[in-house]
Amino acid sequence: MTARPDAPLKVTGRATYALDNVVEGAAHGYLVLSTVARGELASMDVEAVRAAPGVLAVYTPFEPLPLHPVNSALLGRMWLPLQDKDVRYHGQPIGFVVAETFEQARDAAALADVAYHERPAATSFSDGLTSAVDAQPAASEAPPSLTVLADGVASIEDALEASDVTIDATYETAAQNHAAMEPHSALAVWSGGELTVYAGNQAPHLVASDLASAVDVPVDAVHVENPVVGGAFGGKATSMPALLASAAAVALDRPVKAALTREQVFTATANRPATRQRIALGARRDGGLVAVRHDSWSTTTREIGFVEPTSHGTSREWYTTENLAISQKAVPLDVPPATFMRAPGEAPGSFALESAVDELAEAIGMDPVALRLRNNSTAPPGEDLQWSSKHLDECFEIGAARFGWADRTPGGRRDGDWLVGMGTATAMFPGLRFPATVGVTLHDDGTADVATAGADPGTGLLGVLRIVGAESLDVPQDRVVPRLGDSRLPPGGLSGGSTATASAGSATMVAASTVIEQLVALASSEEGPLRGHDVGYAHGTVYALDAPERDPMTFGDVLRATGRSTLSATGTTAPGEETTKHSFGSWGAQFCEVRVHRLTREVRVSRLLGVFDAGRIINPRTARGQLAGGMIWGVSAALHEGIEFDDDGRMSRRDLADYLLPVNADIPDVDVQFVEHPDTLLSDLGARGLGEIGIVGVAAAVANAVHNATGIRVRRLPIRIEDLLEDG
User: Fold this and answer.
1) Does 692 participate in catalysis according to the annotation?
2) For the chain, what is the mean pLDDT?
3) Check: CATH 1.10.3720.10 for 136-176+273-382?
4) pTM of this structure
5) Packing angle between helix 620-639 and helix 346-364, nearest 10 degrees?
6) Is the CATH number of domain 393-430+584-728 3.30.300.30?
């Protein structure tokens, strides 16, 4: 197994994150946040702020930073801070103070005297549902409703009514914050008409394009670097600090650093929204699904931005059913905006669907694993595009045997004062690819660079580039240098959607093949050392096919012999015709054992196992780390995480003391297994995404295990002690 190329730097503290960059004369910016949930700024008295020691500039909607409209290729029309006086939620950025030091900027920001024209705010999800139950967002803003009915069936209600067994229940999941270890931050340097920005993000070339629009300069005048990123999970597709620091650097003509405090991260960025999902399942006595109805609501802003696609991310394709109806609605509230967060749609959607499937299994009297296998789909319902590769049955069979599922009893078991239960759930995440370009450069010292402008926020993409590059060039891995995190490198797609390995890895194969062709042509050319010969390539060397007595030459030898220091080529791949012929997805089976104290109702996860079918596994070490991390996040969603709002719209949990996350004592050993079947229909590399599938289904498996142990069905996350009290 291959070690992470960036591991030595990170564990020894030598990795350079955005704020670790030092530029002489850098000033520091600090945000001022709103203290009401809805209204309009009446005034902002910032004279005391300006008079504070070290303050260089104060920007507000009354005296805004010049920011130009941004139509992001990834996020669409972006909301820009400090451009209007409307207050949309408690904790919205309304001011930016720039001073000589961070402490001076922070202390001065506290002196701002802000007055509001306050309006009534809607911050309660439950209250919002009452008025939003029939409010459907525009199709461009949310997945459209979908209904598939068998011949002769008039409606999904008729199909449910005709079923032998039905369940109908409502499930809720809490809002969550990405809680990346590295808070959002940036250093912007404006010099000679060019802008250089150091900022943790998920796609430096896309961020460079957004910043160029925001400060109104040509995109080739913006250089974004992020060689290391301290976690992202969907929350760093854009950067509020980068926007403000860049505009301030241009306005002040000096470098500006901006970093959010942990509390500011919770409101000045975006979160996973809360959801409510109603699921009705109808089945025959033999377990065959007759009907699935999945109606979902998620919180969003009044402008209806991101809508969590819970119904479409699960019920649309996981199981075979004769009748299907799914819908996705938004509940506009005056709360911080929502955005993508690891397995958007699938993570909260799987809690509802897989809890409902467990309830159906109990109602039928069927083993939960057997029910899932009974309805294993060969293609999404209503479509004739079969899965390119799907081995979910193998995942469940291996997982059940390894976990000891046969020992599970319907009422759980007792171990002293602990009630012990087992639960299971399906995991799935779409198999996706984005357009990506990778450059391969051969050097005369015998090494090769594999470079792309993508990002590695901990996912292991650097290692993938080294492994695939070495394999494609047929050289040892220690001769390959992977490079990432620079917008001036070839555009490498996005570190999101579990796409990076399949996208950048496939492009690496193309680039390597191209540069090898160029090398062979160079070696046999008039200036080449093997001119006049038929030339082949193997093991990093070229050789004369028609003169076997001649010694092979390394590519470094060829370059030196021709007076060159380098030889470069790029390779580009993108989704193509295959998307019209197959459906693509990674699959998995999650197994969980919990222990619930019979008196205190404390819940402990004692065992976790995930068995995954994600195509070819490029680096088993980092793959296990990604999947285990996702499974831990699933436990966190089930038992720990949840954003709550006070009546005035203030987020009540917005630091790592109150926003609960698991620690080592909360997590047992996590067992991860692979069912490795390369999927060459998705890409020549054979790999599918696995970064996000690890979280999917875990919360449901935990809740199902809790039910097995206690007999209590909890339909909202996170599960709390009061949910498990006998009279709860």
Assistant:
1) yes
2) 94
3) no
4) 0.95
5) 70
6) no
